[in-house]
Amino acid sequence: MGQGPDTEYGLVDLEEAETPGDEWEEIDVSDTEADRIARKRDREFNQFQERIKDADQFKVEQSVFDDATFAALYKLVQDGYVEAFGGPLSTGKEANVYHALGDDREVAVKVYRINASNFRQMRDYLEGDPRFEGLGGKKKDVVLAWTKKELANLRRAKKAGVRVPEPIASERNVLVMEYIGNEDGRAKRLGEVQIENPETAYRVMREYMRRLYSAGLIHGDLSEYNVVFDEGQLVLIDLGQAVTVHHPNSCDFLERDCENVASFFSRQGMDTDPDELLEFVTSPEPDPSRD
Ligand SMILES: Nc1ncnc2c1ncn2[C@@H]1O[C@H](COP(=O)(O)OP(=O)(O)OP(=O)(O)O)[C@@H](O)[C@H]1O
Protein backbone atom coordinates (compact mmCIF):
# COMPACT_ATOMS: atom_id res chain seq x y z
CA MET A 1 0.00 0.00 0.00
CA GLY A 2 3.04 2.24 -0.02
CA GLN A 3 2.65 3.43 3.56
CA GLY A 4 5.92 3.79 5.40
CA PRO A 5 6.92 5.27 8.73
CA ASP A 6 7.57 8.66 7.16
CA THR A 7 4.34 8.79 5.22
CA GLU A 8 2.47 12.07 5.35
CA TYR A 9 -0.84 10.40 4.52
CA GLY A 10 -1.20 12.81 1.64
CA LEU A 11 -1.99 15.92 3.67
CA VAL A 12 -3.04 18.42 1.01
CA ASP A 13 -0.75 21.43 0.91
CA LEU A 14 -2.68 24.44 2.21
CA GLU A 15 -0.93 26.60 -0.38
CA GLU A 16 -3.23 24.97 -2.95
CA ALA A 17 -6.32 25.71 -0.92
CA GLU A 18 -8.50 28.64 -0.09
CA THR A 19 -11.05 29.00 2.67
CA PRO A 20 -14.34 29.52 0.87
CA GLY A 21 -15.51 32.12 3.39
CA ASP A 22 -19.06 33.05 4.34
CA GLU A 23 -20.52 33.07 0.86
CA TRP A 24 -22.83 30.19 0.04
CA GLU A 25 -23.87 29.61 -3.52
CA GLU A 26 -27.59 29.19 -4.05
CA ILE A 27 -28.41 25.78 -5.50
CA ASP A 28 -31.15 25.41 -8.08
CA VAL A 29 -33.24 22.29 -7.54
CA SER A 30 -35.82 22.93 -10.22
CA ASP A 31 -36.63 20.40 -12.97
CA THR A 32 -33.53 19.00 -14.59
CA GLU A 33 -32.74 18.07 -18.16
CA ALA A 34 -33.17 14.41 -17.15
CA ASP A 35 -36.78 15.05 -16.16
CA ARG A 36 -37.38 16.58 -19.57
CA ILE A 37 -35.67 13.64 -21.33
CA ALA A 38 -37.69 11.13 -19.30
CA ARG A 39 -40.90 12.91 -20.26
CA LYS A 40 -39.91 13.01 -23.92
CA ARG A 41 -38.51 9.47 -24.04
CA ASP A 42 -37.03 9.57 -27.52
CA ARG A 43 -35.84 6.45 -29.35
CA GLU A 44 -32.21 6.82 -28.43
CA PHE A 45 -33.06 7.11 -24.74
CA ASN A 46 -35.26 3.99 -24.91
CA GLN A 47 -32.41 2.05 -26.51
CA PHE A 48 -30.00 3.21 -23.82
CA GLN A 49 -32.48 2.16 -21.14
CA GLU A 50 -32.87 -1.32 -22.66
CA ARG A 51 -29.11 -1.73 -22.99
CA ILE A 52 -28.49 -0.80 -19.35
CA LYS A 53 -31.39 -2.95 -18.13
CA ASP A 54 -29.79 -5.93 -19.86
CA ALA A 55 -26.42 -5.37 -18.25
CA ASP A 56 -25.66 -8.01 -15.62
CA GLN A 57 -24.73 -5.61 -12.85
CA PHE A 58 -28.06 -3.82 -13.03
CA LYS A 59 -30.39 -6.82 -13.19
CA VAL A 60 -30.84 -7.08 -9.46
CA GLU A 61 -30.81 -3.33 -9.00
CA GLN A 62 -33.70 -2.30 -11.13
CA SER A 63 -35.68 -0.84 -8.27
CA VAL A 64 -33.09 1.96 -8.06
CA PHE A 65 -33.66 2.97 -11.64
CA ASP A 66 -36.93 4.57 -12.46
CA ASP A 67 -37.34 6.24 -15.86
CA ALA A 68 -35.98 9.56 -14.68
CA THR A 69 -32.88 7.90 -13.19
CA PHE A 70 -32.22 6.17 -16.52
CA ALA A 71 -32.65 9.57 -18.14
CA ALA A 72 -30.14 11.10 -15.74
CA LEU A 73 -27.59 8.37 -16.56
CA TYR A 74 -28.32 8.86 -20.24
CA LYS A 75 -27.70 12.61 -19.94
CA LEU A 76 -24.40 12.01 -18.15
CA VAL A 77 -23.37 9.64 -20.95
CA GLN A 78 -24.44 12.16 -23.59
CA ASP A 79 -22.44 14.87 -21.85
CA GLY A 80 -19.36 12.65 -21.84
CA TYR A 81 -18.99 12.25 -18.07
CA VAL A 82 -19.63 8.50 -18.24
CA GLU A 83 -18.64 6.20 -21.07
CA ALA A 84 -19.24 2.71 -19.70
CA PHE A 85 -20.68 1.25 -16.52
CA GLY A 86 -18.89 -1.29 -14.38
CA GLY A 87 -20.07 -3.26 -11.38
CA PRO A 88 -21.50 -2.03 -8.08
CA LEU A 89 -19.04 -0.84 -5.42
CA SER A 90 -21.66 -0.61 -2.72
CA THR A 91 -25.36 -1.07 -2.19
CA GLY A 92 -26.42 1.20 0.63
CA LYS A 93 -29.63 2.29 2.31
CA GLU A 94 -30.01 5.52 0.43
CA ALA A 95 -27.74 5.08 -2.59
CA ASN A 96 -25.86 2.60 -4.73
CA VAL A 97 -22.35 3.35 -5.90
CA TYR A 98 -21.04 1.99 -9.21
CA HIS A 99 -17.66 1.83 -10.79
CA ALA A 100 -17.64 3.38 -14.27
CA LEU A 101 -15.42 4.74 -16.98
CA GLY A 102 -15.41 8.50 -17.52
CA ASP A 103 -13.96 10.31 -20.50
CA ASP A 104 -10.34 9.81 -19.50
CA ARG A 105 -10.42 8.08 -16.12
CA GLU A 106 -12.33 5.78 -13.84
CA VAL A 107 -15.20 7.34 -11.96
CA ALA A 108 -17.62 6.43 -9.18
CA VAL A 109 -21.31 6.96 -9.92
CA LYS A 110 -23.53 7.35 -6.89
CA VAL A 111 -27.23 6.83 -7.56
CA TYR A 112 -29.56 8.05 -4.83
CA ARG A 113 -32.91 6.32 -4.49
CA ILE A 114 -35.85 8.63 -5.00
CA ASN A 115 -37.76 6.22 -2.78
CA ALA A 116 -35.21 6.48 0.00
CA SER A 117 -37.02 5.49 3.14
CA ASN A 118 -35.12 8.02 5.21
CA PHE A 119 -36.01 11.08 3.17
CA ARG A 120 -37.49 12.80 6.23
CA GLN A 121 -34.12 12.49 7.91
CA MET A 122 -32.56 13.92 4.73
CA ARG A 123 -34.97 16.86 4.99
CA ASP A 124 -33.87 17.43 8.58
CA TYR A 125 -30.22 17.51 7.55
CA LEU A 126 -30.97 20.29 5.04
CA GLU A 127 -32.40 22.50 7.78
CA GLY A 128 -30.79 25.92 8.09
CA ASP A 129 -28.62 25.35 5.01
CA PRO A 130 -28.44 28.75 3.27
CA ARG A 131 -28.08 27.02 -0.11
CA PHE A 132 -31.53 25.43 0.08
CA GLU A 133 -33.66 28.11 1.63
CA GLY A 134 -36.77 27.69 -0.52
CA LEU A 135 -36.79 23.90 -0.49
CA GLY A 136 -40.18 22.37 0.22
CA GLY A 137 -40.86 18.93 1.64
CA LYS A 138 -41.48 16.97 -1.56
CA LYS A 139 -39.62 13.67 -1.58
CA LYS A 140 -38.18 14.10 -5.07
CA ASP A 141 -37.00 17.65 -4.39
CA VAL A 142 -35.32 16.58 -1.17
CA VAL A 143 -33.39 13.73 -2.82
CA LEU A 144 -32.37 15.97 -5.73
CA ALA A 145 -31.22 18.65 -3.32
CA TRP A 146 -29.30 16.02 -1.38
CA THR A 147 -27.42 14.93 -4.51
CA LYS A 148 -26.53 18.53 -5.37
CA LYS A 149 -25.55 19.08 -1.76
CA GLU A 150 -23.04 16.23 -1.92
CA LEU A 151 -21.53 17.68 -5.11
CA ALA A 152 -21.36 21.18 -3.60
CA ASN A 153 -19.92 19.85 -0.34
CA LEU A 154 -17.21 17.94 -2.21
CA ARG A 155 -16.34 21.10 -4.14
CA ARG A 156 -16.20 23.19 -1.01
CA ALA A 157 -14.11 20.62 0.87
CA LYS A 158 -11.68 20.27 -2.03
CA LYS A 159 -11.35 24.04 -2.25
CA ALA A 160 -10.57 24.18 1.47
CA GLY A 161 -7.69 21.71 1.09
CA VAL A 162 -9.41 18.54 2.23
CA ARG A 163 -8.68 15.40 0.21
CA VAL A 164 -12.04 14.12 -1.04
CA PRO A 165 -13.07 12.40 -4.30
CA GLU A 166 -12.94 15.08 -6.96
CA PRO A 167 -16.50 16.12 -7.78
CA ILE A 168 -17.22 15.81 -11.51
CA ALA A 169 -20.91 16.25 -12.26
CA SER A 170 -24.42 15.62 -11.01
CA GLU A 171 -27.68 15.11 -12.81
CA ARG A 172 -30.89 14.74 -10.89
CA ASN A 173 -30.27 11.92 -8.34
CA VAL A 174 -26.94 10.81 -9.82
CA LEU A 175 -23.51 12.05 -8.78
CA VAL A 176 -20.27 11.41 -10.68
CA MET A 177 -16.98 11.72 -8.83
CA GLU A 178 -13.39 10.56 -8.97
CA TYR A 179 -13.01 6.84 -8.34
CA ILE A 180 -10.83 6.18 -5.32
CA GLY A 181 -9.11 2.86 -5.78
CA ASN A 182 -6.92 0.96 -8.15
CA GLU A 183 -6.92 -2.18 -10.28
CA ASP A 184 -7.33 -4.28 -7.11
CA GLY A 185 -10.64 -2.61 -6.35
CA ARG A 186 -12.03 0.27 -4.31
CA ALA A 187 -9.77 1.86 -1.73
CA LYS A 188 -10.02 0.27 1.69
CA ARG A 189 -11.72 2.01 4.58
CA LEU A 190 -9.53 3.22 7.42
CA GLY A 191 -10.96 0.50 9.61
CA GLU A 192 -9.91 -2.18 7.11
CA VAL A 193 -6.18 -1.41 6.95
CA GLN A 194 -3.27 -1.75 9.31
CA ILE A 195 -2.19 1.81 10.07
CA GLU A 196 1.55 1.92 10.45
CA ASN A 197 1.80 5.49 11.60
CA PRO A 198 -1.32 6.44 13.57
CA GLU A 199 0.22 9.69 14.89
CA THR A 200 0.55 11.13 11.39
CA ALA A 201 -2.81 9.76 10.26
CA TYR A 202 -4.47 11.37 13.30
CA ARG A 203 -2.69 14.66 12.62
CA VAL A 204 -3.98 14.65 9.04
CA MET A 205 -7.52 13.77 10.14
CA ARG A 206 -7.53 16.60 12.69
CA GLU A 207 -6.29 19.04 10.11
CA TYR A 208 -8.93 17.97 7.58
CA MET A 209 -11.67 18.30 10.20
CA ARG A 210 -10.46 21.78 11.02
CA ARG A 211 -10.26 22.82 7.38
CA LEU A 212 -13.76 21.51 6.79
CA TYR A 213 -15.03 23.43 9.80
CA SER A 214 -13.25 26.61 8.66
CA ALA A 215 -15.07 26.20 5.34
CA GLY A 216 -18.37 26.10 7.26
CA LEU A 217 -18.98 22.37 6.97
CA ILE A 218 -19.31 19.52 9.44
CA HIS A 219 -19.10 16.01 8.01
CA GLY A 220 -21.72 14.62 10.38
CA ASP A 221 -20.93 10.95 9.87
CA LEU A 222 -17.20 10.84 10.26
CA SER A 223 -15.66 7.59 11.40
CA GLU A 224 -13.29 4.91 10.11
CA TYR A 225 -16.10 3.86 7.71
CA ASN A 226 -16.12 7.13 5.79
CA VAL A 227 -12.39 7.65 5.41
CA VAL A 228 -10.56 5.58 2.83
CA PHE A 229 -6.89 4.97 2.47
CA ASP A 230 -5.62 5.30 -1.07
CA GLU A 231 -2.01 5.17 -2.22
CA GLY A 232 -0.74 6.65 1.00
CA GLN A 233 -3.50 9.26 1.22
CA LEU A 234 -6.42 9.63 3.57
CA VAL A 235 -9.56 10.52 1.63
CA LEU A 236 -12.82 11.62 3.26
CA ILE A 237 -15.92 10.25 1.53
CA ASP A 238 -19.71 10.42 1.85
CA LEU A 239 -20.20 14.16 2.22
CA GLY A 240 -23.90 13.97 1.36
CA GLN A 241 -25.06 14.42 4.92
CA ALA A 242 -22.42 17.04 5.79
CA VAL A 243 -24.22 20.07 7.21
CA THR A 244 -23.32 23.71 7.27
CA VAL A 245 -22.51 25.33 10.58
CA HIS A 246 -25.98 26.94 10.45
CA HIS A 247 -27.70 23.63 11.16
CA PRO A 248 -29.43 23.66 14.58
CA ASN A 249 -27.66 20.40 15.54
CA SER A 250 -24.29 21.20 13.98
CA CYS A 251 -22.54 21.25 17.38
CA ASP A 252 -23.90 17.81 18.27
CA PHE A 253 -22.82 16.43 14.90
CA LEU A 254 -19.35 17.86 15.32
CA GLU A 255 -19.06 16.46 18.84
CA ARG A 256 -20.09 13.05 17.56
CA ASP A 257 -17.54 13.21 14.73
CA CYS A 258 -14.84 14.11 17.25
CA GLU A 259 -15.86 11.23 19.53
CA ASN A 260 -15.78 8.73 16.65
CA VAL A 261 -12.41 9.86 15.35
CA ALA A 262 -10.81 10.12 18.79
CA SER A 263 -12.16 6.70 19.71
CA PHE A 264 -10.83 5.10 16.51
CA PHE A 265 -7.33 6.49 17.05
CA SER A 266 -7.38 5.58 20.72
CA ARG A 267 -7.98 1.99 19.56
CA GLN A 268 -4.82 2.45 17.48
CA GLY A 269 -2.95 2.96 20.73
CA MET A 270 -2.99 6.74 20.79
CA ASP A 271 -3.79 8.97 23.70
CA THR A 272 -6.71 10.94 22.28
CA ASP A 273 -9.33 13.16 23.85
CA PRO A 274 -12.56 14.08 22.01
CA ASP A 275 -12.84 17.42 23.86
CA GLU A 276 -9.31 18.38 22.92
CA LEU A 277 -10.05 17.39 19.30
CA LEU A 278 -13.20 19.53 19.32
CA GLU A 279 -11.21 22.45 20.69
CA PHE A 280 -8.59 21.98 17.97
CA VAL A 281 -11.14 21.70 15.14
CA THR A 282 -13.01 24.84 16.18
CA SER A 283 -9.94 26.93 16.97
CA PRO A 284 -8.87 29.43 14.31
CA GLU A 285 -6.09 28.55 11.89
CA PRO A 286 -2.74 28.96 13.63
CA ASP A 287 -1.08 30.65 10.69
CA PRO A 288 -3.01 33.68 9.45
CA SER A 289 -0.22 34.59 7.00
CA ARG A 290 -0.80 31.49 4.93
CA ASP A 291 -1.78 33.43 1.80
N1 LIG B 1 -15.47 7.92 -4.96
C1 LIG B 1 -15.46 6.64 -4.62
N2 LIG B 1 -14.53 5.80 -5.11
C2 LIG B 1 -14.51 4.49 -4.78
N3 LIG B 1 -15.41 3.91 -3.93
C3 LIG B 1 -16.36 4.71 -3.42
C4 LIG B 1 -16.44 6.10 -3.73
N4 LIG B 1 -17.48 6.62 -3.06
C5 LIG B 1 -18.03 5.61 -2.37
N5 LIG B 1 -17.37 4.45 -2.58
C6 LIG B 1 -17.65 3.14 -2.00
O1 LIG B 1 -19.04 3.04 -1.76
C7 LIG B 1 -19.28 2.92 -0.35
C8 LIG B 1 -20.53 3.69 0.02
O2 LIG B 1 -20.33 5.05 -0.30
P1 LIG B 1 -20.97 6.20 0.55
O3 LIG B 1 -20.62 6.04 1.99
O4 LIG B 1 -20.66 7.49 -0.11
O5 LIG B 1 -22.53 5.88 0.31
P2 LIG B 1 -23.71 5.62 1.33
O6 LIG B 1 -24.90 5.25 0.53
O7 LIG B 1 -23.86 6.79 2.24
O8 LIG B 1 -23.21 4.36 2.09
P3 LIG B 1 -23.70 3.83 3.50
O9 LIG B 1 -25.19 3.70 3.42
O10 LIG B 1 -22.97 2.51 3.57
O11 LIG B 1 -23.23 4.87 4.49
C9 LIG B 1 -18.02 3.42 0.32
O12 LIG B 1 -17.81 2.83 1.59
C10 LIG B 1 -16.95 3.00 -0.66
O13 LIG B 1 -16.61 1.65 -0.48
From TrEMBL:
Keyword Amino-acid biosynthesis annotated: no
Similarity-based family: Belongs to the protein kinase superfamily. RIO-type Ser/Thr kinase family.
NCBIfam families noted in UniProt: Prot_Kin_Rio1_Halo
Reactions this protein catalyses: L-threonyl-[protein] + ATP = O-phospho-L-threonyl-[protein] + ADP + H(+); L-seryl-[protein] + ATP = O-phospho-L-seryl-[protein] + ADP + H(+)
Domain Protein kinase: 83-291
CDD domains: RIO1_like
Segments of skewed composition (Acidic residues): 13-25
Ranges for region Disordered: 1-25
Top enzyme category: transferase
MF annotations from Gene Ontology: ATP binding; metal ion binding; protein serine kinase activity; protein serine/threonine kinase activity
Enzyme Commission numbers on file: 2.7.11.1
Matches recorded under Pfam families: RIO1
UniProt keywords, alphabetically: ATP-binding, Kinase, Magnesium, Metal-binding, Nucleotide-binding, Serine/threonine-protein kinase, Transferase
Species for this entry: Halopiger xanaduensis (strain DSM 18323 / JCM 14033 / SH-6)
InterPro entries: Kinase-like_dom_sf (IPR011009), Prot_kinase_dom (IPR000719), RIO-type_Ser/Thr_kinase (IPR051272), RIO1_kinase (IPR054876), RIO_dom (IPR018934), RIO_kinase (IPR000687), RIO_kinase_CS (IPR018935), Tyr_kinase_AS (IPR008266)
Name the UniProt record assigns to this protein: non-specific serine/threonine protein kinase
Top-level taxonomic group: Archaea
